[in-house]
Amino acid sequence: MARLCRVAQRSTSTASNKVSGVLVSSMMRGRLWKIGDRIFDLSRQGLIMGVLNVTPDSFFDGGNFFDAETAVEHGLRMAAEGGHIVDVGGESTRPGAEAVALEEELRRVIPVIEQLHRKSEVIISIDTSKAEVARTAIRAGASIVNDVTGGRGDEEMMPVIAETKSAFIIMHMQGTPQTMQIAPQYTNVVSEVFDFFRQQYARAIVYSIDPMAIAFDPGIGFGKTLEHNLELLAQLERLRACDRPIVIGVSRKSFLAKLIKSAQISDRLAPAVALTSLLRTRGADVLRVHDVKENVNALKVTDAILQRAK
Question: For this structure, is 282 an active site residue?
């Protein structure tokens, strides 16, 4: 495993020398992420990923953007607000959510991706665990695959990623959306999530996925209790497997409600934005959010301070 990570670091170093205008500190040289033909230095600037759920049943905005026209308008609005990535999903992964058939998921997401790609230069991510949805979405204009199963849900997913040379977010989830919040258990949640990242990284390399295209997401709220979530967030830098970027999604999630003791989902906005700044200082590179404008502004201020603190 260490050898695989060293290979990735050499690849990253070589690629960074070919990219003009990219400055990488000695401590952060591994925080480069390749998306399509672009390379982002995440040590200098974090990225905001806006959530676009084309579903009737997502936990926060389910049904609000279920028709293609409304979804595209919202995606364009998130791009206009400064979002760097729009993450389009057609299958809810909230606790207890039922699986969506392949044809229905394609029907929901592909028209939205096609129109966003035609009308905007924003980076498009497809949030799916199905290889065929990923392949079709990439053809339609997506350049990132965000897989909540981390490549385990469909044996064809990693070959598709390698074939299309897409960026790949490997997320950790214990169980499935139907079972994940039924008494999740770990001996050491940080170590187990980190080991999962290294294992999936090794699999990705076997399939010839570009190491620079890989990022990891610990899956806050996906098969974790409140204590598990807090431990992962507190130990974020320990999750950086093979120097790859860390993606974090805490926006509007129920663990925030438990902490602030409020049942009002609107009360989750302030703590979520606060976490964008805090987690950026703790090593997060990509923040997956519902409220783009507020989080973009928080990230701008945080990154400006971090650059002067070096």
Answer: no
| Chain position carrying tokens 């499935």 | 176
Phi, psi for 169 (deg, rounded to 5): -100, 115
Round to whole Å and give the CA distance between 222 and 175.
8
Q: Bridge-partner residues for 248, per DSSP?
A: 287
Annotated catalytic residue, options 135, 253, 268, 280: 253
Q: What is the pTM of this model?
A: 0.89
- What is the residue range of 185's domain? 2-7+32-309
The token pair at 2 is 């260490």
Which band of pLDDT confidence, cut at 50, 70 and 90, is reported for residue 181?
confident
State the Cα–Cα distance between residues 184 and 82, nearest whole angstrom.
36
Q: How far is 33 from 158, CA to CA, in rounded Å?
A: 18
Residue 15 in any domain: the answer is: no
Q: What is the CATH number of the domain that holds 260?
A: 3.20.20.20
Q: State residue 78 phi and psi, 5-degree precision.
A: -65, -40
Q: What's the pLDDT at 88?
A: 97
Residues 6 or more apart whose CB falls under 8 angstroms from that of 72 comprise 112, 115, 116, 119
Tell me the pLDDT tens digit for each residue of 91-129: 988 777 788 999 999 999 999 999 999 999 999 999 999
CB 54 within 8 A of CB 74: no
Tell whether 64 is covered by a domain: yes
Domain presence at residue 17: no
Active site residue 203: no
| Total of domains in the chain | 1
Is 177 inside a domain boundary?
A: yes
